[in-house]
Every structure is written in structure tokens, then in C-alpha cells.
Amino acid sequence: MAVKLNHVPGKKSGDIVLYALSTCGWCRMTRELLDSLGVAYDYVYVDLVKGSEAEETAREVERLNPSGSFPTICIDKKKVIVGFKEDEIRKALKVK
Fold first, then answer.
1. Cis peptide leading into 9, omega within 30 of 0?
2. Does some domain include residue 95?
3. What are the tens digits of pLDDT across the range 3-60?
4. Measured between alpha carbons, how far is residue 84 from residues 1, 17, 52 in Å?
5. In a domain, 90, yes or no
6. CA 8/CA 35 separation, integer angstroms
7. What is the pTM assigned to this prediction?
8. Residue 43: inside a domain, yes or no?
């Protein structure tokens, strides 16, 4: 993917990519959860992406999550979690 992702350093707990909106409260809560867990992850605020990258990002989110809702988390390019589901996120990342 050519879209520029923002990286948050932390302990490696899989390849985590968060697709979020800058104005979304659930997205903010998801980032806060990931930060509190101390895991490394990449994220992009889809609503702030411009030009051809915006189309590419929208297609990627739609491929992972056909409903196109946020937040959308992709773990290890296999597991997709849609929405703020704290227990499911913790389980997927194998952290308490």
C-alpha cells in the first residue's frame, strides 16, 4: 500500500493497522486502547488522506470491511475487527 501510515512504537504484537477517522470518538478510544496496551501499530486517518491516496485508502478499507465503517483494525493481514471491541482487540493481540 502506498498510503503513508503513521507509526506508533511499542512492543511487537503482530502487524497492526488501524484505519480511523480524525473526528471519530470510537477511533480515538481504539487508539487510546492500543496506546495503553503498549503495542506497536500503524494508523491512518482516512478522512485526512488526499488525492489518489484517498481513493486507494477507501478501496483498502472497503476490501477489509465492506460496510466501510470505522474504526477498522487489520491484524497480521488476516484478522479484521470493525468498531471499538475492547475484549476482541485484547484477545486478538493476546494481551490482558
1. no
2. no
3. 789 999 999 988 999 999 999 999 999 999 999 999 999 999 999 999 889 889 989 9
4. 24, 14, 28
5. no
6. 8
7. 0.93
8. yes
Q: Which residue shows C-alpha cell 470491511?
A: 65
Query: What domain count does the chain have?
Result: 1
DSSP sequence for the chain: --SPPEEE--B--S-EEEEE-TT-HHHHHHHHHHHHHTB-EEEEEGGG--HHHHHHHHHHHHHH-TT--S-EEEETTTEEEES--HHHHHHHTT--
Q: Which residue has the cell 477517522?
A: 21
- Supply the range of the domain harboring residue 23: 6-84
Q: Which residue matches cell numbers 488522506?
A: 49
Residue 96 within any structural domain of the chain = no
Instruction: Measure the CA–CA gap between 37 and 23, rounded to whole angstroms.
Output: 22
Residues contacting 3, CB < 8 A, separation 6+: 44, 49, 53, 56, 57, 60
Rounded CA-CA distance 93/1 in Å is 23
What is the C-alpha separation between 83 and 95, in angstroms, rounded?
18
